[in-house]
Amino acid sequence: MSRGMAFAMFTLLSVTLGVSGCAKTETTIVSGDPTDAEIENIVRRSYQYVAMYNVNNKFAHTQGGWNTVAPDTELKDHTLREIARPNNDTLYIGCMLDLRNDPVILEIPAFDSKYVSLMVTGYDHYVNIPMATRLGDFRKPERMLLYTVRTRGYNGEPVDDVDRIFEATGDFVSAVFRVMPHVNEPDRFKRIVEQMQSVKAVTLSEYRGGKAKPIDDDIEFPPVGKTDADVFENNLLEVMQFVFNHTTFDLDNPMDQAVLAAYKPLGVEPGKAYNPGQVAKIDGKRFRETAQRIQRKWLASLTDQQMQDKLRSRIFQPKGQTDLEAVLAVSIIGPIGVPQEEAVYPQAATSNGEQMNAMNDYVIRMAKDELPPAKAFWSLTLYDRDQGFFLPTDRATYSVGENAGMKMNEDGGTEIYIGAEKPEGVPDENWLPIERKDLDLSPQMRVYVPDLEKMKTWTPPKAEGLDLQ
Question: From edge to edge, which strands make up the β-sheet containing 116-121?
Fold first, then answer.
């Protein structure tokens, strides 16, 4: 029997998996002509990998390749297109690391900032926060070594003068620092930028006085997609084969085993080389349509506070501490974030429940006792809803918050205006400009180091429509 015939004769494969502690039986893919339900299952289980393959590889390309460090010197603007819903209230240090041939050591300075965190994630989109100011870190310089179980010639042993050793779940990872820059304190901002520029990534071979091993000697990356839907349509099996070969899967993790089981009938398994003639033929357009339908569903839930509260404790968590629903949601809404202990991401909905649109102007009012319960700081950033990008404007203003010198009113509260023109008497720092057109808007808050007890009763502010003149 040929391999193609074998795929056509696959019978339904069921796998028992646990989601949020509950056992559940789901059907995975069957043949080269799957049903709509089977495609939906595969798309749902693939989204975290497709999204992060796109994000990590785009960032690596943008900053000059792997084992590179790219510290920001200014806040991100509307030209950023590698990731949806990026920060405009912290500076990033993006460290794109290839851990296949050699461990990589990050040399990390002390930071003069009241908020810093380090986030590490591979193609699986499970998030780890090995260091944070919340944990008492970044008060002194440190070195952290990162590796995976596939790193050649290294097995996790101690290294002289290295303070931390971290085992990543993927060979190609992003290690991203978020640093509150204190923009409204010019001297402090300058110090912080200089500290950020001192972060270095060196391979263990270099650290020991040798030469770095080659990093692009034997590998060819599948093409990324302009959007995640492009990958689902054009080269899903190729991307997933690559991901499977460079990701650590846990035999005891239900989510890991479910995605492997879903792809096995398609000829995609860890350790194989991708061969288009030896995998199932799938209808990419059906996969794309399913991915876009699932995407629309989650984007429509952005202002569903009950749903956001339900997901909050499960998003951006390490493997084993999250579930499919949570990882799927953040992979669509905005990849690479931090867990609720570091930040929460409430949406500002409208008071009448209607979708915000750039054909209208809005004001978001908060009294002093209604401000977000942040132990570090908070901000509100404006995006277009569907793509999650900043809105291009002449003023290049995308967020309101402490970093930009937000103005408080005489009672200790604040008002934030979203409009095509700045209302008379409104401080520039409290105005988010828009271009008048039919574009759905998504104002998202970030509450850094939130008081989680107070968050249980705190309600995100509502945007009120302003009459157009």
Answer: 68-71, 91-98, 172-179, 116-121, 128-132
Q: 460 and 349 in contact (C-beta within 8 Å)? A: yes
Rg (CA), the chain: 23
CB 184 within 8 A of CB 65: no
Per-domain residue ranges for the chain? 65-207, 346-466
- DSSP letters for 33-75: S--HHHHHHHHHHHHHHHHHHHHHHHHHHHTTSSSEEEE-SS-
Question: Which architecture characterizes domain 346-466 according to CATH?
Answer: Sandwich (2.60)
Could you check whether 65-207 and 346-466 share the same CATH topology?
Answer: no
Q: How far apart are CA 382 and CA 380, in angstroms?
A: 7
pLDDT at 216: 56
Tell me the CB-side half-sphere exposure of residue 217, using CA atoms within 13 A: 7
pTM: 0.85
Please state the φ and ψ torsions of residue 43, each to the nearest 5 degrees: -60, -45
Nearest to 301 by CA among 288, 287, 315, 289: 315
The b-or-e profile of 346-355 (16+ CB within 10 A means b, else e) is bbbbbeeeee
Residues in the chain, overall count: 469
What is the CB neighbour count within 10 angstroms for residue 209? 6
State the architecture of 65-207 in CATH terms. Sandwich (2.60)
Amino acid, single-letter form, for residue 305: Q
Lookup: tokens for 245:
């070969």
Report pLDDT for 77: 84
pLDDT along the chain (469 residues), means of 10: 34 34 39 82 98 96 94 86 82 96 97 97 98 98 98 95 98 97 92 98 95 73 96 98 98 97 96 95 97 94 84 94 96 92 93 94 97 96 91 88 87 96 93 95 95 95 81
